[in-house]
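Hi D.,

Good news: the full-assembly prediction came through. Inputs first.
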Amino acid sequence: MRRTLPLIAALAALPAALAAAQDIESVLLAAGEAMGNPSSIEYSGTGWVANVGQSHTPADDWPRFEVTAYSRTIDYDAKSSKEIHTRRQGDYPALGGGAPLLGEQERILLTSGGHAWTMRGSDAVPQPAAATVRQLDIWMSPHGFLRAAADADDATAVTLMLEGRELTIVSFTAMGHRLNGTINEDNLVERTLTWVANPVFGDMIYDHRYTGYQDFGGVMFPTVIHSHQGDPRINPGHNSMEITVTAAAADVETAPPAAPDNVRDATAPPVVVRSTQMASGVWRIYGGSHHSVAVEFADFVAVVEAPQNEARSLAVIAEIRRRVPDKPIRYVINTHHHADHAGGLRTYVAQSATVITHEANHAFYDDVFFHPGTRALEPDLLSGRMPWFAPNRIPAYELVGDDGHTLTDGERVMNIHPVLRLGHAGTMLIAHLPAERILINADLYSPPAPGSDPPPVTAGMRSLAQNIEQLDLDVARHVGIHGLVGSHVDFMRLINGE
Ligand SMILES: [Zn+2]
Ligand SMILES: [Zn+2]
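Then the structure:
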């Protein structure tokens, strides 16, 4: 008894609101009474949506598109949601991936019972990779959060003084993810946050802010929804969406549809890797949506592009080993920092390859992308290997500035050039093999299949043509990280409108 007394005295001396555990049931009850407890909600408005993972440089926020119409219906009992939005470039700068967005684009994003899909016309297109986030999103909506907290068996509530306000943080586990919500002085959910697996960011912050609550027919709903996806270390916020809500209604009659059969039966597509030899010691490695090129030097192999994720990198590396069994992959050339083009880089770093990338990527790659921190949601080779105690610096970089960079063994030469004045990315590199007259590019020119309709000439194609001319590159063949292999003659025909 006596030994507990000083502890009780010490606790009593603490300011009551410093950090006080709360009874979770009474916290949820008070929030439910303030907010209402609908079985479904429908809301609409306008705002903007961003292209996550596609910034112009790592120092920039995600590129935004105007949302001229937004509506979403969530059915909490069916665990289903349907979001429709129409987006266009609007007045947002046409910088970054996906920009400029020509015309208006309607997108329909659905989830039900653990499945995710989009609609293309009247066809349901399965999106198994999006299922976890879309289901989590239901439980991160204002009312969904309270429901999920009540259903969880590990929910806790702690009240804190934050910036002069008394706020209660409710935390629990749902679908293997830790969800945190902030409940304010008025018992309203003003923020929900979790982390989702991402090849670039690792455990990536996913965050919704709910402000400007109004009474919509007896149910409280925010009039501003603002979302973040990213990492706060290099670019605070990484704003991904903002919707100003103009109408909301609870317990609506039309529920989102159940998942159609083709969506229920869908599985993640297999990783397919094939290769063809383009010249002595040069292989195009393809089979998916994003390709790579392996180039053999005297003592090593250099790989242009590590797209998508670790699964693709492992399969590409296996194919390179089959082609060149006796040489290590010493260099990986990263065309630009967009998540779909850089997502497989960590697998090469884990095997001590030097990353050749634009100098503008250095701080982001060092502090965030290749950071040795734990990846709890989807551990990869690098997060498990922890090579930061190795005698040689890992990751190693060769940074490319305005003057470009040359990789050579004295015999073979690969020149790496930055692409200047490009809207798609401010970090773009192209790789040129002068002896083989091969030019490798990403997202600028994707050579089409022979005999297919000529693609429209894009700003990226024009920029590529200008850079080729300015650098005076001798090119016979274009290899796209997307698309096929095409002749420079055909490329110039397109550019010149012939
Ligand atoms: Zn890109
Ligand atoms: Zn691309």
